[in-house]
Amino acid sequence: MNAIYAGSFDPFTNGHLHVLTQACELFDKVYVAIAVNSEKSRKIDKDVMKNAIEKIIKSNKLANAEVVVLEGLTVDLAKEKNAKFLIRGLRNGTDYEYEENLAVVNSKIAGVETIYFRAGETAHISSSVVMELYNYGKDITKWVPKEVLEVLK
Amino acid sequence: MNAIYAGSFDPFTNGHLHVLTQACELFDKVYVAIAVNSEKSRKIDKDVMKNAIEKIIKSNKLANAEVVVLEGLTVDLAKEKNAKFLIRGLRNGTDYEYEENLAVVNSKIAGVETIYFRAGETAHISSSVVMELYNYGKDITKWVPKEVLEVLK
Amino acid sequence: MNAIYAGSFDPFTNGHLHVLTQACELFDKVYVAIAVNSEKSRKIDKDVMKNAIEKIIKSNKLANAEVVVLEGLTVDLAKEKNAKFLIRGLRNGTDYEYEENLAVVNSKIAGVETIYFRAGETAHISSSVVMELYNYGKDITKWVPKEVLEVLK
Amino acid sequence: MNAIYAGSFDPFTNGHLHVLTQACELFDKVYVAIAVNSEKSRKIDKDVMKNAIEKIIKSNKLANAEVVVLEGLTVDLAKEKNAKFLIRGLRNGTDYEYEENLAVVNSKIAGVETIYFRAGETAHISSSVVMELYNYGKDITKWVPKEVLEVLK
Amino acid sequence: MNAIYAGSFDPFTNGHLHVLTQACELFDKVYVAIAVNSEKSRKIDKDVMKNAIEKIIKSNKLANAEVVVLEGLTVDLAKEKNAKFLIRGLRNGTDYEYEENLAVVNSKIAGVETIYFRAGETAHISSSVVMELYNYGKDITKWVPKEVLEVLK
Amino acid sequence: MNAIYAGSFDPFTNGHLHVLTQACELFDKVYVAIAVNSEKSRKIDKDVMKNAIEKIIKSNKLANAEVVVLEGLTVDLAKEKNAKFLIRGLRNGTDYEYEENLAVVNSKIAGVETIYFRAGETAHISSSVVMELYNYGKDITKWVPKEVLEVLK
Fold this sequence. Notes:
Helix content of chain A: 40-55%
Oligomer: homohexamer
Strand order of the largest sheet of chain A: 3-2-1-4-5
Radius of gyration of chain A: 15 Å
């Protein structure tokens, strides 16, 4: 059974890693899909982040994870990769309601089901808050993997 | 990888079946645990429901599911069955917040993580509403498996 | 077009009156249905409350409202009274999610749709809080119609 | 009794149609107001959409609906059209809280009350998600009226 | 400036202690009010809990805290103790909406305002879950003060 | 005990004043911090607003309040001003969940705790809605202090 874990990962945080680690225990293969949205500019280049996530996967021994860049719809990638499940991390009830609207559509349009993982202890922090803290010189080592820290330098 | 799907299942509905079916695709073994709470009386006897769920599992060919009656804590059953994940179905944001409080505790007390599945199309209906409709003579065939209908007669 | 406004109305508050007044402007006929639940004991007898609501309807000149006692399902009353809409008052998002689960069921089981009115300025207070304040000797004149106050004495 | 159903309708979906159909049963006249916000660019021109909604109204025999373009405040249109109620569709609790803040203001500033209709079966999908699916070549016929499909071609 | 921190405290947890500690830094005097509800039986006797909280206050050097048993309304205690603020701990959005309904009433009926403190790291756990874990023999030392543990033995 | 009350205050409303007034009763010193975000353009210049808030503080006799412009992180200002608490106003559950994510981060990164005040009767209105109403010629005197009205003219 394969799964897609899509997100902007700008940057990939320890919360994302917590979700990915759980997913790799459950699925035969997990595709980490860096979703690129033409209307939203990224803070960290998609290829730089792809490279960083590949290193994170290696250092965390997540042998069944693979990173891809996603420029289309998640459900199309799911079909291409023969994945029946989408993975999403949840931090709170507002997250859930936002995700749920997308999950209904993905289920109806492509028969792909969404599974929610808890984002975990360090995952209350969003990618954008991490970047804001970093830009103001704060120590963010507890919120992002060291491979992301190296990219930011 | 094993998982526990605990609930009062009073009765087991098509929403529960939707969650269980997804879970059986993902896990090696799924334990459906009929949670018995000494302070809350059941509408349908736990052994009658156990029997009905066993028939549902058989007719839906969920070969890796097994029903148990749970009189203690879910995390203790998880340990006994070597299950690292708990499965919960979600219908809305209030559900989520309720579940989340338990999920934090289960994670901290026993290192057992919770995964949320969407309850699916027919699962907006709760067990207690199903029973109320049934008691007023409504047709509930779209909300519960036929094996539950037989038990109610 | 007819509508049902069901609730336990134990007691009927100014929030309920606010909803009813709006509904009477919109519908040809509004049935105020005092829902009696055999498992939950009432603080004020259903017939006493029926009588009080009838007086409230009269003094507020809501000529197209009528009170009934509801011992079955709301959707059955809707059918009997040829009502296509159910009316519910909303105070917050938790209210909404609770109501929504019932609304889906009522729509599917009987084709009856639910419309939500805002509960209005004085309607943050629930019937049970009104009664608790009353029992502790507080002045509740701004939260309930005078016809309810007379019943409480 | 008249009502205003305002929105950006960019595009008008089957969810909007579901709300409008219910509203037309209840009100003498329903004004569908295409709200134009100078700060937000539209995907579909307001006059093109006005024309499409007029066709939708005709083919669905909603004789008491009328489309207008709204460049000011909804409450000013309500006054001009002698409408006492605003109509809003709800999909979830987050929607509700957002709407509620506006509803309080509209009630206080102009004495105009808001009524919430359920967005219905196909209305979990937002206008923006519909457009995204369309842009990626997905079949959106179950989510928008055929008159909108024609405009998109 | 005085404040009331009311709750059933059945039992008092580390989450409660976290809130109380913050409140004692802000207010001249904080009354910890063990609310006794005649309709709900307690798991731990109110006088036993009062005694335990007094010890907790002492060992945590919260010199400006005082425990009382509250059999009436919180707002009446507030008046008696010349307290202008009520203190409540929040764990999630559902908590907030529940509290808010009471806060509006307390503000309107007695001019007493509510302040919300975050329940903190260990406070995702409710008193009732703590007791359930304890009854099943789990180690609850990280969730309740040692003075509560002694009472439970 | 000092506190920071940060916000964009674009403009400062009666809701903000309600929160500030309560905070000034509790704290020795309250810093009103006009947060300036380089990515978001302001409707009212920060120095004009600073001047207006200073007048509001004076006319409301809030002797222990002081306005500052904040161009960095709130937690850094908290440290500089020796403030252990951040103050936030809450209007609904969605507000709460948004704030909570920031509150966790601020607590972890700097040991600064967040306290929530209720936004009060007139505070359902946001700064952006106030401005929209003003731009359409509506009377906003009940939502903003007169010192803000003077700035807008």
